[in-house]
Design goal:
Blueprint lengths: L11 E5 L2 E2 L3 E16 L5 E18 H10 L10 E7 L9 E10 L14 E7 L2 E6 L1
Antiparallel strand pairs: 1-2, 1-5, 3-4, 4-7, 5-6, 6-7, 6-8
């Protein structure tokens, strides 16, 4: 019988700019590639051609983590930072295969702070773009 454990959010480790980010609340990232059908004789496509790739994502973290990023920025703005991120999925003590994605050259595209009455903490969403993703399995 084959049985496997699903990865949980608590199994994710985020290293951003060489620092373990403990106040991470969420991360998503997407790799896209332009694709187009190529037509010739007849009504059916003959091939699919590929174009440029694009890389984007969003980091959700606590206000204190945003302030830590701002503190290391030369001009005290996250918009001028360029960082690499290591996102590791899995828990080896549970027998998981470790999956590691390296997001190279992250730059944040927005800095928004928002708070509402009743909030117990500030959660910040930071959209970003990056240059490429490298995946490793161990």
């Amino acid at each position: 019988m084959f049985d496997s454990r699903e990865y949980e959010f608590s199994d994710i480790t985020l290293i951003l700019g060489g620092r373990d980010v403990t106040g991470v609340r969420g991360i998503k990232y997407t790799v896209k590639q332009e694709k187009e059908l190529v037509y010739g004789k007849g009504k059916e496509p003959l091939k699919i051609q590929s174009g440029n790739k694009s890389y984007e994502g969003e980091l959700t973290l606590l206000q204190s983590e945003l302030e830590a990023l701002i503190a290391v920025s030369p001009d005290k703005s996250i918009l001028s930072l360029q960082l690499d991120a290591v996102v590791a999925y899995g828990n080896p003590s549970q027998g998981d295969v470790m999956i590691t994605d390296v997001l190279q050259g992250i730059q944040f595209t927005e800095e928004t702070k928002e708070s509402k009455t009743g909030d117990k903490f500030l959660e910040i969403r930071l959209p970003f773009i990056f240059l490429r993703k490298k995946a490793q399995y161990s």
